[in-house]
Amino acid sequence: NAGVTQTPKFQVLKTGQSMTLQCAQDMNHNSMYWYRQDPGMGLRLIYYSASEGTTDKGEVPNGYNVSRLNKREFSLRLESAAPSQTSVYFCASRKGTGNSYEQYFGPGTRLTVT
Amino acid sequence: AQRVTQPEKLLSVFKGAPVELKCNYSYSGSPELFWYVQYSRQRLQLLLRHISRESIKGFTADLNKGETSFHLKKPFAQEEDSAMYYCALRYSGNTPLVFGKGTRLSVIA
Q1: Do B43 and A105 touch (CB under 8 A)?
Q2: What is the mean pLDDT of residues B17-42?
Q3: Which of these, B1, B36, B41, B3, lies nearest to B21 by C-alpha position?
Q4: Which of A25, A71, A106, B34 has the fewest CB atoms found within 10 Å of its own CB?
Q5: How far away is chain B from the Cα of A54, in angstroms, using its nearest Cα?
Q6: Is pLDDT at B51 greater than 90 in this prediction?
Q7: Is residue A99 predicted with pLDDT exceeding 70?
Q8: By the 8 A CB rule, do A10 and A113 touch?
Q9: Contact B34, B51 (CB under 8 A)
């Protein structure tokens, strides 16, 4: 099992450009999440999908859209990138709702917007 | 709103010294509390959760509902413990984790 995978690993965009960050998990997990990690701010939730076919906003959704393409894949789209979106983006997944279910993270995508 | 507070951005200790990473939360119910760790150039991984009451890599954490705290402790720090540590809270079932801002632990040889 590869676990949670993310592409690309690194990306540089110019202000106003668009891009999609891809995330996939091969653990048959129901829930998937997108976080951004900024120095001094910790991890902040952008969007999440509790189950296939549903998506919900997190703490910092402005400037982003998401698509739960199927049970495996959850993409994050920046329609018009801004320097404030320079960050490290982490995707995560979780199997279910019980206490025993751990949240697994991908390796991250480091995005720079100039 | 649910909140997780980690008051120290950086904690430096000498090898062999005790370590305590502080975490306080604000939530009136019965939350699930976790500690995640991120080693240099690696992904976040679960270190321990309050419900398991286990010791991982010598670390322990006790949920104190009276003080709304979940401090992470280790009696003797090792150099390989140097990492970023995040306290996280889940307040019910399938809700997402809420993270603190993290504490960078630096263990000095």
Answers
A1: yes
A2: 91
A3: B36
A4: A71
A5: 13
A6: no
A7: no
A8: no
A9: no
Tell me the two tokens of residue B56: 């991982």
Contacts of B33 in chain A (CB under 8 A): none
List chain A residues with CB under 8 Å of B49: 99, 102
Contact assignment for B99 to A42 by CB distance below 8 Å: yes
Query: B56: closest CA among B41, B72, B32?
Result: B72
Cα gap A49→A77, rounded to integer Å: 14
Q: Read off the pLDDT of each residue in A6-19 and give the average, rounded to a whole number.
A: 96
| B71-103 pLDDT, tens digit each | 999 999 999 999 999 999 988 777 888 999 999
What type of residue sits at position A68?
R
Q: Please tell me which residue of chain A has the smallest CA distance to B40.
A: A107
Nearest-Å Rg of the Cα atoms of chain B is: 13
